[in-house]
Amino acid sequence: MISPVDLLAALDTITEHWSPRVVGRVNDQYVKVAKVLGELVWHKHDDEDELFLVLRGRLRIQFGGGREIVLQEGQFCVVPRGTMHNPIADEECSIALIETVTTQHTGDVKISRTRSIAEQLGR
Amino acid sequence: MISPVDLLAALDTITEHWSPRVVGRVNDQYVKVAKVLGELVWHKHDDEDELFLVLRGRLRIQFGGGREIVLQEGQFCVVPRGTMHNPIADEECSIALIETVTTQHTGDVKISRTRSIAEQLGR
Fold first, then answer.
1. Which residue of A has its CA nearest to B77?
2. Domains of chain B, residue spans
3. Fewer Cβ close by (within 10 Å): the C or N end of chain A?
4. SUPFAM superfamilies, alphabetically (chains A, B) (predicted)?
5. Are residues B81 and B45 in contact, defined by beta-carbon separation less than 8 angstroms?
């Protein structure tokens, strides 16, 4: 059965920051939503690009060499595979993510906030 | 260089209905935006799922057997590979699409509105 998924309604069920929830799959990519606040952690994904789309609020993403971009509501960017990055939300921010189904949450590092794919699927 | 892409600003540059514009790529998927009005055409993509996200307005998607779903602003659905579908916008509607880079616009049928990947890339 094909049914509509409401991005903001899916976000309303999330209570924990930096804990993405899988809300759809298109080909080999998951669509996830997350509420974020503060800093995640510097990490990279060696083999997978990662798309960040801001649904509510504002997200900063730091890159190496002191570079940083700011994503406002309705803006997205793609972090290419192999790129060190550190997402930061100065105030609570709601995002959608598109990532290969195998992508690990915090890439090549593991912290207490790291979530497994099973957790992101709500299993 | 990684830079933000503004979905609504990208849409503002589009003047033709049913003519998707590639605005990003994540892994083997293109992110596209399109303005749509009226009916496209019944078609399917044998090997590729297709994600429709409504950014402004309202989109109906018809399926076989008289089934239909309605996507409101902020809602998406994934049309699984091999599924006959026909998108219809009763009033102008702005959408984002996520599709494999090889996905053909109108799948297994060709009509005057069919756009090539090169056209969608603005080449």
1. A4
2. 7-120
3. N
4. RmlC-like cupins
5. yes
User: Which positions ≥6 away from A65 have C-beta within 8 Å?
Assistant: none
Q: A40-65: buried (b, 16+ CB within 10 Å) or exposed (e) per residue?
A: bbbbbbeebbbbbbbbebbbebbeee
Contact A9, A56 (CB under 8 A): no
Chain B contact present for A46, CB below 8 A:
no
Q: Which residues of B touch A8 (CB under 8 A)?
A: 74
Nearest to B84 by CA among B109, B101, B102: B109
B26 in contact with A, Cβ within 8 Å: yes
ipTM value greater than 0.90: yes
CATH code reported for the domain at B7-120 = 2.60.120.10
Which residues in chain A come in under a pLDDT of 50? none
Q: Which of A7, A71, A79 sits opposite B76 (nearest CB)?
A: A7
Residue B2 has its nearest CB partner, among A24, A53, A79, at: A79
